[in-house]
Design goal:
The chain has one domain: 3-Layer(aba) Sandwich (Rossmann fold). It has seven helices and ten strands. The longest helix is centred in the N-terminal third of the chain and has 18 residues. Helix content is 29%, strand content 17%. The protein has a seven-stranded parallel β-sheet with strand order 1-10-9-6-2-3-5, covered by helices on one side. Strands 4-8-7 form a three-stranded antiparallel β-sheet, with helices on one face. With 244 residues, it is an alpha/beta fold. The N and C termini lie close together (7 Å). Strand 2, helix 2 and strand 3 form a beta-alpha-beta unit. It binds fructose -6-phosphate (F6R). Fructose -6-phosphate (F6R) binds next to loops.
Length: 244
């Protein structure tokens, strides 16, 4: 498909593994250039391979996260970091438990906070204090969501509390015993928070994302399709595989 109406850099990967390696290479290069880099992290099945690559590189002594910081995109509300379905738990399992990033430099929105609105405002302030996000990693929902910013979300929002759509709850049910256990609300970086990142790396993998891929690729910008806000960002790299 020819590139239309967009500044995004589109890179096709031959496989999920290649997509993960290409994405990880961008992270590694950033870290080699700037040891104190601030990374925006995503959960979900798409970035798992990228995290494996980063762990491999760390274990091989190629890089250190000792001075780096991270901010995750989102977290379910009403769930503690010890809950296996929490995004905090996911990040520990897939990345943080295996690298040398300091605990105090790891940030995942506190979904179990008693004052969730304050947690949201404080999150954006903490990102700003850290100097802003150098690279934000993103996956994309089948409905075009980024973070938990569902269709209809205003592009101007910072970190905020959202109600999850049924399609997102169903897609995420695999991490829970039943649909009833999937939380109804989440805290997420807003689209504006994501747009403030200096660079964005968006991974798209698999046939279930075909429609989302096509819609993003069309170049149309609409709040009905949250990822389309990224067309207004100056430095977005999309690495895709398994879609055409
Ligand atoms: C994850 C996140 C979500 C996912 C999206 C795709 O922190 O914010 O937007 O990136 O739902 O999920 P996967 O990769 O599981 O298809």
């Amino acid at each position: 498909m020819a590139s239309v109406n967009t500044n995004m850099k589109w890179i096709e990967a031959a496989s999920y593994e290649e997509m993960s390696k290409m994405g990880a290479a961008i992270f590694k290069e950033q870290l080699k250039q700037v040891k104190t880099s601030v990374f925006g992290m995503a959960t979900g099945s798409t970035p798992e391979g990228l995290y494996k690559e980063l762990v491999k590189a760390y274990e091989a002594g190629e890089l250190s996260f000792a001075e780096a910081k991270s901010f995750n995109l989102d977290e379910y509300i009403g769930i503690t970091p010890e809950n296996k379905a929490s995004y905090h738990y996911f990040m520990d399992e897939n990345l943080f438990a295996h690298i040398d990033m300091k605990r105090e430099n790891i940030h995942v929105p506190a979904g179990s906070s008693e004052d969730i609105e304050k947690t949201a405002t404080d999150y954006d302030a903490a990102i700003a204090t850290a100097g802003g996000i150098d690279i934000q990693l993103l996956g994309i929902g089948v409905n075009g969501h980024i973070g938990f910013n569902e269709p209809g979300t205003a592009f101007e929002l910072g970190t905020n509390v959202v109600e999850l759509t049924q399609s997102t709850r169903e897609a995420n049910q695999i991490y829970f015993d039943s649909i009833d256990d999937v939380p109804t609300h989440a805290i997420t970086m807003g689209i504006q928070t994501i747009m403030n990142a200096k660079k964005v790396v968006l991974l798209i993998s698999g046939a279930s994302k075909q429609e989302a891929y096509e819609r993003l690729h069309s170049g149309e910008i609409t709040t009905d399709f949250p990822a389309s806000a990224l067309h207004n960002h100056k430095d977005v790299t999309v690495i895709y595989t398994g879609v055409k």
